[in-house]
């Protein structure tokens, strides 16, 4: 199995994702420069950062990078794509996931640990977690206030596409636990087919105890388990 | 050469934390009469060509594709020769 971490101008969590996959999990991992449109991997990671300086809107310009044409094809063919933070924003702009990001309700850039509740463990990204499991994972963003039309939200909930919600340490979804004003406390969603995940928190920053926690591991472990089962590739 | 002006605004009802912060700051300065602030973008494009109608259509396409995110924003386009 081979992971590809896309590098946009302004990505800054690319090396962290690469490190976790390559050194912590010992999996073949390559960088994919945003101008490349010819690569062969089993899972694409769109890392966090500030692609193209987030000029115009977060993710808006990256969405038209040459690499994204291939990412869309890969996703449409069933390939696994995980977008973290800025990667999530890019997936929204690209239309691979529904909705959009607004600035944080508090207007502050929020950079601290949050708690997430796993709402759906029947996905390639969460199968190693149990439903209702509470994960402690850091966030770092100024535009993570997820928004979508009421009809879209209904569909997301009905289809089990809301994968992670912000909660408190006891797993209760409360307004106080919501760091950015996200609709329905949404921290991560999946597409209808279930092969594209976007999440604001950074699992790559908490996959080793030396960094203060290992709760992010479950996401990488789930992806690896899914690929090991030889599930379809894009 | 034509000048196209694109105004991008958040749709009504979509929360604008930036506008709220500016409103609070204006109140702190004593401008209590300000009841609402909405922040948008104003983008000026210099566009080659003479057919203003065609330019307007093209710029609307640009706004729809890139300059605005129509999930949360609306836009207006003005073109002058």
UniProtKB/TrEMBL annotation, chain B:
Pfam families: PurS. Keywords: ATP-binding, Cytoplasm, Ligase, Nucleotide-binding, Purine biosynthesis. GO terms for molecular function: ATP binding; phosphoribosylformylglycinamidine synthase activity. GO terms for cellular component: cytoplasm. Its EC number is 6.3.5.3. GO terms for biological process: 'de novo' IMP biosynthetic process. It is found in: Cytoplasm. Its main location: cytoplasm. Gene3D superfamilies: Phosphoribosylformylglycinamidine synthase subunit PurS. The keyword Zinc-finger does not apply. Pathway: Purine metabolism; IMP biosynthesis via de novo pathway; 5-amino-1-(5-phospho-D-ribosyl)imidazole from N(2)-formyl-N(1)-(5-phospho-D-ribosyl)glycinamide: step 1/2. Transmembrane segments: none annotated. The keyword Cytoplasm applies. It comes from the Bacteria. It catalyses: N(2)-formyl-N(1)-(5-phospho-beta-D-ribosyl)glycinamide + L-glutamine + ATP + H2O = 2-formamido-N(1)-(5-O-phospho-beta-D-ribosyl)acetamidine + L-glutamate + ADP + phosphate + H(+). InterPro entries: PurS (IPR003850), PurS-like_sf (IPR036604). Belongs to the PurS family. Part of the phosphoribosylformylglycinamidine synthase complex involved in the purines biosynthetic pathway. Catalyzes the ATP-dependent conversion of formylglycinamide ribonucleotide (FGAR) and glutamine to yield formylglycinamidine ribonucleotide (FGAM) and glutamate. The FGAM synthase complex is composed of three subunits. PurQ produces an ammonia molecule by converting glutamine to glutamate. PurL transfers the ammonia molecule to FGAR to form FGAM in an ATP-dependent manner. Part of the FGAM synthase complex composed of 1 PurL, 1 PurQ and 2 PurS subunits. This is Phosphoribosylformylglycinamidine synthase subunit PurS. It comes from Carboxydothermus hydrogenoformans (strain ATCC BAA-161 / DSM 6008 / Z-2901). The lineage of its organism: Bacteria, Bacillati, Bacillota, Clostridia, Thermoanaerobacterales.
């Amino acid at each position: 199995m081979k992971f590809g971490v896309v590098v946009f101008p302004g990505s800054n969590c690319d090396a962290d994702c690469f490190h976790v996959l390559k050194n912590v999990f010992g999996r073949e991992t390559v960088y994919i420069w945003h101008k490349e449109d010819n690569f062969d991997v089993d899972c694409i990671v769109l890392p966090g950062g500030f692609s193209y300086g987030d000029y115009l809107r977060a993710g808006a310009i990256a969405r038209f990078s040459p690499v994204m044409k291939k990412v869309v094809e890969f996703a449409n063919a069933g390939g696994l794509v995980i977008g973290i933070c800025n990667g999530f924003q890019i997936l929204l702009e690209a239309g691979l996931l529904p909705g959009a990001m607004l600035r944080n309700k508090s207007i502050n850039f929020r950079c601290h640990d949050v708690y997430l509740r796993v709402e759906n463990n029947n996905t390639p990204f969460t199968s190693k977690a149990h439903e209702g499991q509470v994960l402690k994972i850091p966030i770092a963003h100024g535009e993570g206030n997820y928004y979508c039309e009421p009809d879209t939200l209904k569909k997301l909930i009905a289809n089990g596409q809301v994968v992670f919600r912000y909660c408190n340490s006891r797993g209760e979804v409360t307004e106080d636990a919501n760091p950015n004003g996200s609709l329905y406390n949404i921290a991560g969603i999946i597409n209808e087919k279930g092969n594209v995940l976007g999440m604001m928190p950074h699992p790559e920053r908490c996959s080793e105890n030396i960094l203060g926690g290992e709760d992010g591991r479950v996401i990488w472990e789930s992806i690896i388990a899914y690929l090991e089962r030889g599930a379809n590739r894009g | 050469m034509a000048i196209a002006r694109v105004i991008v605004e958040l749709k009504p009802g979509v929360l604008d934390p930036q506008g709220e912060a500016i409103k609070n700051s204006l109140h702190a300065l004593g401008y209590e009469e300000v009841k609402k602030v909405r922040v948008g973008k104003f983008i000026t494009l210099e566009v080659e060509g003479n057919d203003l109608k065609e330019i307007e259509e093209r710029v609307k396409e640009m706004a729809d594709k890139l300059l605005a995110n129509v999930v949360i924003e609306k836009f207006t386009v003005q073109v002058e020769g």
